[in-house]
Request: fold
Amino acid sequence: MSAASPTVRQGAATRAILYAILLVFAVIYLLPLYVMLTTSFKTLDEIHQGNMLALPGEWTFAPWREAWGSACIGLECEGVHGYFFNSIKIVIPAVLISGLLGAFNGYVLTKWKFRGHKIVFGLILFSCFIPFQIILLPMARMLGILHLANSTWGLVLVHIVYGIGFTTLFFRNFYASFPDELVRAAQLDGAGFFVIFFRILLPASIPIIVVTIIWQFTNVWNDFLFGVSFASGDSAPITVALNNLVNSSTGVKAYNVNMAAAMVAAVPTLIVYILAGKYFLRGLMSGSVKG
Amino acid sequence: MSNASPDRDGGARERLQRWLPKLVLSPSCVLVLFFVYGFIAWTSYISFSDSGMMPDYTWVGLHQWSRLWTSWTWGIALHNIWVFGLLYIVSCIVLGLVLAILLDQRIRAEGVLRTIYLYPMALSFIVTGTAWQWFLNPGLGLEKTMHDLGWQSFSFNWLIDSNMAIYTVVIAAVWQATGFVMAMFLAGLRGIDGEMIKAAQIDGAPAWKIYARIIIPQLRPVFMSAVVVLAHLAIKSFDLIVAMTGGGPGNATAVPATFMYSYAFSRNEMGIAAASAVFMLAVIAALIIPYLYSELREPRS
Reply:
């Protein structure tokens, strides 16, 4: 708790107002999620007649089943499950490889400094912040040349390349505060580059590994721009499928199915957030402020 | 390793050890140099070329740039990003600061509230856009709910109103990012030195005055970070607009990011698309480079 908080003496009325305001905000923040969830369990009739804020009169799982297995996206009517697995196929290699590269980079940039190491880090770091519009056109061509267009492997490559900046930032800041003496002592004992990394630094890196995995997982899972630009059709990730489902203008809008599909897209990152919110926040903060 | 020539072996091993760090760093460097800086150079060149559907390396000077600048849609996109960016940054900072100060009053269940305020940040913009599009749906959403509750004159059709649609995007974007800004301010508040505050309290200064005169001025670095991060998020905003309004009605909610995408992939005007992307990069670079420079210049203790 804050030692700086200048509110030592507050009346009961002030406290009540304070809690009321905070509670109102909490309700506002939860409301869209609540509406999304309840809508996904309602029948279309009830959506058209009933109140958006009411709980479902009769609970139905049909919208979830349809969203998962039979909703029409484009010409195919197989739901979002294939795209969900596409996202998983993209996320796992992209997170692991960009994380590993970032860990090595952070290690070299802090424990094996060379002339110009700051410039190298600056150049890598700047890549976190570029608007990706600047690379869309050449990347589309490059993926075509590499025969990776419209494939999940193409997106894996894209996410690795543009994930390196953040993963390097995380590990560099973490290793910067790791005592140099330990590294030097190991060197005197004859330990080499990789031995020091795997035996000494890596075992101490669990927190930053968790932060990096969560950050990369969330970013890659939630990506839409790369997905919609480089992977149409069967290889699209879940976000692209969701957008196609919701914003395709054919037929009657099945809001309950849309909301169920949105929940399917949201659940993995929500679970990660609920289980490891502390690490999620740390990632966000070190992405914005020097850690 | 052989015992015959320990010196030469040792030398080779040492040389390898000396090169190993750079060797390990080099794949990332090659990837970044090629896929970031090489691609930036390529796109920049294309913005001065005659490229349409396919790249055409004929140099045409500022032709594409002047076409961009005379484009009616680009004018709307620039106007929108100003309105959106300004409202988004100011609202997030004001709300985030207020929430942080309120949460900093030894609140019970602070952890739970913080979790609730921050969770939208874990969602994809596409999910957020889908949810808010439904929530603000003029026929079935908030408007109907208010009518059902007895407020018959309540009207909220911004989503389909060309003049107002951009504000619905602001609402959803603020909803998504405020918790994050709050967390930044909360961390800042927790890091403030309590001595001056105690002194002011002993002098009998009221709480609001202590905040206005002592605490908020000390949060200046957090304001800086928040503005940079939010501005950067705003300029890159693409997903949320696509999911909520698709840039419509008409072109009413076009922003530079959606403009670039549609010229690149639907209209096959590579030259103009490249010029708009270079412009976005230039704005972000002008914002980020000084920030990164000041952050990296010297190690903070």
About this structure: Residues 1-46 of chain B form one domain. Chain B has two domains: 1-46, 66-296. Residues 1-6 of chain B have pLDDT under 50 and may be disordered. The first helix of chain B runs from residue 6 to 46.
